[in-house]
Design a protein that fits this description.
Number of strands: 11
Strand content: 5-15%
Structural class: alpha/beta
Number of domains: 2
Radius of gyration: 20 Å
Shape: globular
Largest sheet: 8 strands, parallel
CATH class of the largest domain: Alpha Beta
Mean pLDDT: 89
Helix content: 40-55%
Distance between the termini: 37 Å
CATH superfamily of the largest domain: Aldolase class I
Strand order of the largest sheet: 1-9-8-6-5-4-3-2
Number of helices: 17
CATH topology of the largest domain: TIM Barrel
Low-confidence stretches: 1-29
Oligomer: single chain
């Protein structure tokens, strides 16, 4: 099979000859509504949330997802004040619909949470680490508390802390996740059963409406989607990243700690990251302890980045990357995901009656 390229897989947009010469997907598709506890809680049209991906889920992308009828979440990671000052006005100007902020729990302090809350998000999502020092502050501020979990221990803690929404992240997901986690298919219903009646969102390996339909069938009230939204017009990523995602295959992704160690990232060892292939991953796979002790190798990595021989960041990508073949506007993508999910659920219902 020929290797697919961005030019092969992404059709060019029609030329804009006038104000009505190009009709966006949202205008061409019939109106679909999948009502769930998640959509009712936030007053959104579709059970789709943007994963708050660090480095790519900026204000334009979050606003577009919210405008499309989902819940856009800014990837504020450590709560950097300059980043928030730049991206929050963008999302506010781009939508009057609900949006939120995502933070890495292991990397923040109370001040970071307070900065996020000053932006008055509708929701705050905490992931990767112990959220207990921050949950009451978020609740007192009136924001909806979303806790992402990667195993059953974290899921029980989220229930005990009174999360308004729980995200069950399977190991198929791109970027960081549990080193010893479980795949989405068995993990999501286990969390659904544990957390009921708290709404659960499924995450990991969901890149089209069929995946969203599967999440709903597992008992989730929607899906938190990351890699698919990296390949959209509004994502804060270098064109080389979108090219790699469109050309990538699920079999080329790998969960590892090598690249965190090589670039000096201080992620806790319990969380590995799923990425596309990388030269340093090939060189150091299975030799993480040796790499961690080799300061020269880490300096070599930074030197290679400075020379442009390796990208500044790994290409975070989930196992569903095969399903990503275009770079649509994010608002249109939300509508398409919902329409595809409804179509998939309708087909299953009809097959059952047949």
């Amino acid at each position: 099979m020929a290797h697919r390229t961005l030019a092969d897989k992404v059709p060019a947009a029609p030329a804009r000859r006038g104000p009505c010469s190009w009709v966006p997907m949202t205008a061409m598709m019939s109106v679909m509504t999948l009502s769930t506890a998640f959509t009712k809680l936030f007053g959104v049209r579709h059970p789709v949330a943007l994963a708050p991906m660090g480095g790519s889920a900026g204000g334009a992308l979050a606003a577009a997802v919210s405008q499309g009828g989902g819940l856009g979440l800014l990837g504020a990671t450590k709560g950097d004040p300059e980043w928030l000052a730049r991206e929050v006005p963008v999302v506010r100007q781009g939508t009057d619909r609900p949006w939120g902020i995502g933070l890495w729990t292991w990397a923040i302090d109370v001040a970071a949470v307070e900065r996020a809350l000053e932006c008055q998000p509708r929701a705050v999502l905490l992931s990767f680490g112990d959220p207990s020092p921050f949950t009451e502050r978020i609740r007192r501020a009136g924001a909806t508390l979303i806790l992402q979990v990667t195993d059953m221990t974290e899921a029980r803690q989220a229930v005990d802390l009174g999360a308004d929404v729980i995200v069950a992240q399977g190991t198929e997901s791109g970027g960081h996740g549990a080193r010893h986690g479980r795949s989405t298919l068995p993990f999501v219903p286990a969390v659904v059963d544990l957390a009921a009646p708290t709404p659960v969102l499924a995450a990991g390996g969901i890149a089209d409406g069929r995946g969203l339909a599967a999440a709903l069938a597992l008992g989730a009230e929607g899906a938190l989607i990351g890699t698919r939204f990296q390949a959209t017009a509004e994502a804060l990523v270098d064109p080389s990243i979108t090219t790699a995602i469109v050309e990538g295959r699920g079999q080329d992704t790998e969960r590892n700690r090598v690249l965190d160690i090589a670039r000096g990232a201080s992620w806790p060892s319990r969380y590995t990251a799923r990425t596309l292939g990388h030269r340093y991953l090939d060189r150091w796979r299975g030799r993480e302890a040796e790499l961690a002790a080799d300061r020269q190798a880490q300096r070599d990595y930074q030197d290679d980045v400075a020379r442009g021989e390796v990208p500044p960041l790994p290409v975070w990508a989930g196992e569903a990357v095969d399903l990503i073949t275009d770079l649509p506007p994010a608002a249109d993508l939300v509508t398409a995901l919902a329409a595809q999910a409804e179509d998939a659920l309708t087909r299953v219902t009809r097959a059952g009656k047949g």
